[in-house]
Amino acid sequence: MKTLLEVKDLSVSFDVYGGEVQAVRNVSFDVKKGEAVAIVGESGSGKSVTAQSIMRLIPSPPSRIKNGSVLFEGEELLSLSEKDMQKVRGNKIGMIFQDPMTSLNPTMTVGDQIMESLIKHQDVSAAKAKSRAIEMLHLVGIPNPESRIKQYPHQFSGGMRQRVMIAIALACNPSLLIADEPTTALDVTIQAQIMRVMKDLQEKMGTSIILITHDLGIVADVCDRVIVMYAGRVVETGTKWEIFQNPQHPYTRGLLRSLPRLDQRKDEPLIPIPGTPPDLIKPPTGCSFCARCDEAMKVCVDNDPDLSAIKGSDSHAAACWMLHPHANREVPV
Ligand SMILES: Nc1ncnc2c1ncn2[C@@H]1O[C@H](COP(=O)(O)OP(=O)(O)OP(=O)(O)O)[C@@H](O)[C@H]1O
Ligand SMILES: [Mg+2]
User: Fold this and answer.
1) What does the pLDDT read at residue 182?
2) DSSP-derived secondary structure letter, 28
3) pLDDT of res. 93
4) Are 63 and 14 in contact (CB under 8 A)?
5) Which of 101, 279, 321, 326 has the fewest other C-beta atoms within 10 Å?
6) What's residue 328's pLDDT?
7) What is residue 326's three-state secondary structure?
8) How high is the mean pLDDT of the chain?
9) Of 213, 210, 211, 221, nearest in space to 263 by CA
10) Pair (107, 136) in one structural domain
């Protein structure tokens, strides 16, 4: 499969009163054409900052993209002018945020909001944009789209508003959709419906997806590959089955034990990971997870491990000293 997006050594910091918050540290990953990739990790691990940096939507100051590269369809997004970046946003890369009420414009009809992006990016007539807006609302499962396009966001329920967000994000048929916790504010049945809509559209249109979520059921249902982030770093990456069935990083194992799973037995309790993530103003010199890790060794305190490939797989890698050949320890599965 062809690579659509390649993020390399991305580092993003916030300059705040107390110092420099190193929110994203040397993050690298790629997304292939038509692939759905999940980014998971505890709150504050840098998932949203990574996504917003790709879109160059992160306010600067206080943020600063310190180094790295974001290649999208072979083009370096980090060196584009703001004008050229606006042609990418909404047109080639669509984004859905967590809260549809704050992302939608309350003073514009839903139809106008879908049409706006089409007219801006695709140079189509108002009549063509209108019929496309109706088609998009129909695609995301909104009944009576012909009359609904004349209504305002407050006339839609939460789930319907999120469908409208998906319609806006996909109206220009972008090659990449970034969805940052798109269903967190919704109840479970609506969540499942929205994810189904996204997955169907992905399959129909061949869109690649980056999905940020805390919900492993959604990951299992929708995604091909998983990136696990901790304290601003990628600590493990692999296909969803490699991550679910053979997690190699102690943090990934902790995360899987702490979040509800569909295949969980009724008597299997959720076990939170003890302790708290490190202070990103002074991140530890060694492994960031060391202080919370039951399996930590001496080497983990002073040296931060790089991602190393897991034997026998070209998709699975984890950043843990236990995977070093000299660690001489069996990794429990
Ligand atoms: N405007 C800001 N000023 C200072 N620090 C910030 C700012 N925005 C984010 N951060 C810091 O960047 C780090 C990463 O935040 P981010 O929002 O990416 O986390 P996240 O993984 O998306 O978490 P969540 O699951 O809660 O959405 C956090 O430590 C956060 O405190
Ligand atoms: Mg977030």
Assistant:
1) 83
2) E
3) 95
4) yes
5) 326
6) 63
7) helix
8) 89
9) 221
10) yes
- Domain presence at residue 143: yes
Cα dihedral across residues 162, 167, 168, 172: positive or negative: positive
Kindly state whether residues 151 and 211 are assigned to the same domain.
no
CA–CA distance, 53 with 67 (Å, rounded to integer) = 11
Place of tokens 């869109």: 207
Residues 155, 12 share a domain: no
Which one-letter DSSP state was computed for residue 330?
Answer: P
* pTM listed for this prediction: 0.91
Write the CB contacts of 319 (distance below 8 Å, at least 6 apart in sequence). 233, 234, 235, 236, 249, 287, 304, 305, 306, 307, 308
Task: Say if CB 197 and CB 8 are below 8 A apart.
Answer: no
Range of the domain at 152: 101-173
Output the pLDDT for position 262: 66
Which of 11, 15, 42, 49 to mutate to test ligand 1, by most ligand atoms within 8 A of the CB atom?
A: 49
Give the residue ranges of the chain where pLDDT is below 70: 99-101, 185, 261-264, 328-333
Q: Which of 80, 69, 103 is nearest to 180 (CA)?
A: 103
Q: If you measure from the C-alpha of residue 211 to the centroid of ligand 2, how many angstroms do you get, rounded to a whole number?
A: 11
d(CA 186, CA 182): 9
- Say if residues 312 and 242 touch (Cβ distance below 8 Å): no
Which residue's CA is the closest to the ligand 1 atom numbered 3? 14
Rounded CA separation 156/148 (Å):
9
Exposure on the CB side of residue 331, measured as CA atoms within 13 A: 21
- Measured in Å, residue 43 CA sits from the centre of ligand 2 at 7
pLDDT at residue 198 in the model:
82
